Amino acid sequence: MAEPVKKTTGDEPSRSVAGQTATMTVQEGKNRTRFTLAWTLTAAGLLAYNWWVLVPFRPGLMSSPNELFSNLEVTGLPYATEMQHADLSSGILLLAAFLVAGNATVTVAAAARRGRQEWLAMMGFAVAGALGGLWPELCNDTTNAVCRRREWSFQLPIGQYLHIVAGIFEFTFITVALVYAVRRNRGSTTRFAVIYRGLLWGAAVAYPLLGAAYLSNKLGGVMEGVFFTGFTVMVATQIAERTRAPGRQPVPAASGDLERSTT
């Protein structure tokens, strides 16, 4: 006995469209929440990261532009504890921001892998920054000759060297992320691609100058300020790219259009 043919009504496509619209609305709500949380964490993290901007407004904190900002965190100096806590908080907040923002930037497989590598490198940058605040320097190696001599002779406690290693990793991770970002956006003319390429050209010029500043103990604070500004732009650009709204999917055709397309 033949089974009765199930009749379809014109309401079924409408219900399907309504269901997909509701799903899109829920997803848009989640995206807005993710966007708000990621940027709140980022803003707080970058504010803490850029505590150095306030130093020039407090006369007497820095003895000269040759002094590194990290030397102001030597325990016992004015505001050293607050600066250490700012570095630690910044690293934790930025790590949370990148976890919320996620690692998705594009859908093309090869570029997506680079996007994930950038994401991991940026989280490494955040962790290294937090560790730098957790293990501050123990003496001022840029203005104190005795401290510098003992440092090079490995006569200082381990905390001094942990701080130095954390700083090296901080610079390394964010530079690696920048290189991957430029490679991923090769040939692109988006605002993100332009910013990444500009940062890479700036780094190519600034890194030799930073090395010269460290070796000569001249203008170290100035060069650190340049790099911290570039790092801030890099973090903000990465978060902006990862929290941008994805393109809306086309809404399925209405019932009348479906009927015409099958005739």
Throw out a few tags for this protein.
single chain; 8 helices; 263 residues
What is the helix content?
55-70%
Radius of gyration: 26 Å
Spatial gap, N to C terminus: 30 Å
Low-confidence stretches: 247-263
Number of discrete helical segments:
8
Shape: globular
Strands, count:
0
Folded structure, characterized:
It is built from 8 helices and no strands. Helix 1 runs antiparallel to helix 2, helix 3 (109-134) packs antiparallel against helix 5 (158-184) and helix 6 (191-216) runs antiparallel to helix 7. It has one domain (28-245). 30% of the residues are buried. The longest helix is centred in the N-terminal third of the chain and has 39 residues, at 11-49. Helix content is 68%, strand content 0%. With 263 residues, the protein is mainly alpha-helical. The model is unreliable at 247-263 (pLDDT under 50). The protein has helices spanning 11-49, 80-101, 109-134, 145-152, 158-184, 191-216, 220-242, 255-261.
Question: Topology, pairings included?
Answer:
Blueprint: H1 11-49, H2 80-101, H3 109-134, H4 145-152, H5 158-184, H6 191-216, H7 220-242, H8 255-261
Helix pairs in contact: 1-2, 1-7, 2-3, 3-5, 5-6, 6-7
Please summarize what this structure is.
Helices cover 68% and strands 0% of the residues. It is mainly alpha-helical and 263 residues long.
